[in-house]
Amino acid sequence: MNIHESRIIELIRQGEGISVEFKTCRNKITRDLYETVCAFLNRHGGTLLLGVQDDGTLQGIEPDAVSQIKKDFVTAINNPLKLTPPTYLTVDVVELVGKFLLRIYVPESSQVHRCNGRIYDRNEDGDLDITDHTTLVAHLYQRKQATFSENKVYPWIQPTDLRPELIEKCRRYVRINKDNHPWATMDDEQLLKSAQLYQADPITKEHGVTLAGVMLFAPDLLLLQVCPAHRTDLILRKVNVDRYDDRDLVRTNLIDSYDRILAFVQKHLPDPFYLEGIERRSLRDAIFREVASNMLIHREYASGIPARLVIEYGKVMTYNANRPHGFGVLDPETFAPYPKNPVIGALFREIDRADELGSGMRKMMLYGKKYGGADPQLIEGDIFRMIISVPEFGSVQKPAEIIEFVGAQVTAQVTAQVTAQVGSYCAEPRAAREIMSELGLKHWKTFQKNYLIPLIDAGFLERTIPDKPSSRLQKYRLTVQGRKFLKNLP
Q1: One fold for both 232-389 and 405-488?
Q2: pLDDT at residue 427 greater than cutoff 60
Q3: CA 89 to each of CA 72, 74, 348: distance values in angstroms, whole numbers, following the listed order
Q4: pTM score, two decimals?
Q5: Domains of the chain by residue range
């Protein structure tokens, strides 16, 4: 039994409460499921177990109905007619003693949600409809604004004060991901309202752009008026360890900040050849895409502490102001994601700058050791820290899948026929232009990206002048591993 299953059993033993709810859902979703989701979002979050009776009896879901229930649930919570504003939740399938359950973790939201037009809150093990209780609704709005600083409303900032080209940039991104996305046809104010970036102050009732809207779309001068301490300090420190070798001080909106972080990483970190199945994958980009979004989405912008990303020899460290929900190193097996800025996170997911809550961390853990040789460390506290091991340029360290045997890995990227042709031709050192002529290729970048670099990274070819890769006298020859591969070809 794994840790995940043990945790499910422990939840069942504890019984229903303010943060745990059981639903039978034998072959279809019960009508009150979405009311519970709404209540969890509005209160402190919680866990839903589908396939368990109210008394904790493990009934299970009919195997043939599991996929359809998952599909119906995901479709409904993303439907603004059912849940407003829509949310993003993942559904895990768990098998216990031969019976299927669905586990749904619902994080606390920074917004007030409605289910079928009604507002629900959680009280002990029940869901309360508080729509017509004005005082309770007012308290709920005030609590959300006090808990999540991203919801602070600035009535003196209106949609016309923001950068329209950035909003249009987001429209282009969502059109690419989904042709019929509703944002594609909305004007700027409608889009900001839909994204919960333009709201009414719960006390004064005045409308204005929220802190989240400012951080995402405001001109730099306006952004720094609202949040003067905002900055992301990107530092390379390998040779001059007392100061730095390179630095980029980023004090702009979060969308452009994301691109600047990735550009700095791509400039200073290697991207070794790696195959996943038959496709080449950039481990560096997969890991640091998550790092960049984490630094921006989960930062506490009410704090005056700047964020930092420091590249040192063999590792990268990040530091972020945080509103902690626990302390110490996070365990991927028991980690329960908690959104620090759900509105900013939701927009990042819409424009494909972040993964669903929790999946990004799992992806980082999956690829981190393959990339740098050690699991990433994520440390929760008043300062949220990440420590990621990274390879160095020229390092012989490569993923085990490549070192194990060149042939199978290289030919997934470069066909066996081309590999054999290049290998045979390069038994004697050859210049790049000679190899291109042998293959009938004319475009240098295509040859370099699709043929030359994969074969070198995999240890099939080597440079005759390794210390000067761009030397005009550079040639390429078959390695010992390459000879072994050719010898074993049928």
Answers
A1: no
A2: yes
A3: 13, 7, 15
A4: 0.60
A5: 3-135, 148-226, 232-389, 405-488
